[in-house]
């Protein structure tokens, strides 16, 4: 089970009135953040990860729970692609 934590930066006064704009989950060492950004539409969710060097990948889902699931699917696809590339490099080295 993956646990998501609200990582929105709130000003002291706005915490009660503001919906979360950033959610983060950590899987082993990998941080996964589903968030909004000022330079994107107000209904656009993005995927970022410092550990995996991913920055502001647009998600299609407008609902936060769907965006979280979409981010995990997208992350799995990216990791599988990277694994395949690494395996090909290892084969070349052999």
Keywords:
94 residues; five-stranded antiparallel beta sheet; alpha+beta; elongated
Q: Which shape, going by the Cα principal axes?
A: elongated
Helix percentage: 25-40%
Strand content: 15-25%
Biggest beta-sheet profile: 5 strands, antiparallel
Structural class computed from helices and strand pairing = alpha+beta
Average pLDDT rating? 92
Number of helices: 1
> How many β-strands, per DSSP?
5
- Describe the strand arrangement of the main beta sheet, using strand numbers: 1-2-3-4-5
Please trace the helix and strand order, writing H or E for each element. Answer: EEEEEH
Note the gap between the termini. 38 Å
Walk me through what this model shows.
- The chain starts with a strand and ends with a helix.
- It is of the alpha+beta class.
- Strand 2 (22-27) and strand 3 form a beta hairpin.
- It has one domain (5-93).
- The chain is built from one helix and five strands; from the N terminus they run E-E-E-E-E-H.
- The protein has a five-stranded antiparallel beta sheet, with helices on one face.
- 32% of the residues lie in helices and 24% in strands.
């Amino acid at each position: 089970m993956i646990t998501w934590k609200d990582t929105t930066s709130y000003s002291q006064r706005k915490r009660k009135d503001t919906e979360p704009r950033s959610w983060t989950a950590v899987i082993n060492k990998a941080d996964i953040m589903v968030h909004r950004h000022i330079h994107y539409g107000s209904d656009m969710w993005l995927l970022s990860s410092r550990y995996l060097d991913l920055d502001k990948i647009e998600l299609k889902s407008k609902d936060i729970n769907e965006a979280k699931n979409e981010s995990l699917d997208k992350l799995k696809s990216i990791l599988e692609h990277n694994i395949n590339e690494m395996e090909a490099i290892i084969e070349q080295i052999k």
